[in-house]
UniProtKB/TrEMBL annotation:
This is Phytanoyl-CoA dioxygenase family protein. The keyword Oxidoreductase applies. It comes from Zhongshania aquimaris. Keywords: Dioxygenase, Oxidoreductase. GO terms for molecular function: dioxygenase activity.
Length: 261
């Protein structure tokens, strides 16, 4: 396991992605983004700061999807993923983060689970199972602000008040415990979805996030089968284990559900 990640909940590998790979990622992400914006014009104009499911078939051609799969399933990338998550990381999703159209829209402190978990469940989530973001900025950007160690510890009173907008506080207010992490194109930022964080807007940011989770049914249920590669593509990947894990768990879940009903 990576010591910095274990201690702080995040780690940065500078200049991780080679220029030719970065160029392909940027071109494919841009193609997705243009198509996604047309389909989601109102949402994009009003409040969007990210999109998801880049490896699905809706916005990309098969060869464009395969270029994403080949990067995710490369030996170099998966070696880093396993160094953080252990022997059986499971592919979960992809996201694209960008600046809001409305320049007055403020960024906001959050933990990812807060949108589908109660307070008690959020506390329990700090014990695992885990979801981890692997973020690749496709151009230089201001980066992200994190509160180190909050992947393992619960909020202090002021952090909780700001994050949940309690006691008159707002989720965009500055927190003294926050640490800004500036990112350059091709860096790799790895951070726990459980930790308190917020994006920093500006510089026409475009960051690709690849999410992995521990191999447990309660997390894999969120994986969209349309975002997984078929067997032909997987045969062409250097390391398809994370995709195979997602498919196996989803298949087993479906079989167990069929048996129980």
């Amino acid at each position: 396991m990576n010591k910095d990640y274990e201690e702080n909940g995040y780690v940065v590998f500078k200049s991780f992605v080679r220029e030719n790979d970065l160029k392909k990622l940027r071109e494919t992400a841009t193609q997705f983004h243009q198509s996604w914006k047309r389909k989601n014009a109102q949402f994009y104009a009003e409040k969007a700061v990210n999109s998801a499911y880049l490896t699905a078939k809706e916005h990309l051609k098969n060869d464009e999807r395969e270029s994403f799969f080949k990067f995710i399933g490369s030996a170099k990338f998966m070696d880093v993923v396993t160094s953080i998550m252990g022997d059986r990381p499971t592919f979960m999703n992809t996201q694209l983060f960008f600046d809001p159209v409305n320049e007055s829209q403020k960024n906001y402190w959050h933990r990812d689970p807060q949108y589908h978990m109660s307070i008690d469940e959020q506390k329990q989530a700090l014990l695992g199972p885990n979801v981890v973001h692997f973020r690749i900025p496709l151009s230089d950007e201001p980066g992200i602000e994190l509160i180190p160690g909050t992947h393992r510890r619960w909020d202090k009173d002021d952090e909780l008040d700001v994050r949940l907008e309690r006691n008159g506080r707002k989720n965009h207010e500055n927190l003294s415990t926050g640490k800004a992490v500036e990112l350059d194109a091709g860096d790799l930022l790895i951070f726990s979805a459980n930790m308190i964080h917020r994006g920093i807007y500006g510089m026409d940011r475009m960051s690709l996030d690849i999410l992995f989770c521990d191999p447990v049914p309660e997390l894999v249920k969120f994986v969209d089968s349309n975002c997984l590669p078929d067997s032909d593509i997987m045969e062409r990947l250097e390391n398809a284990d994370a995709f195979k894990s997602a498919i196996e768990i989803k298949t087993n879940n479906k079989a167990m559900h069929a048996t129980s009903t």
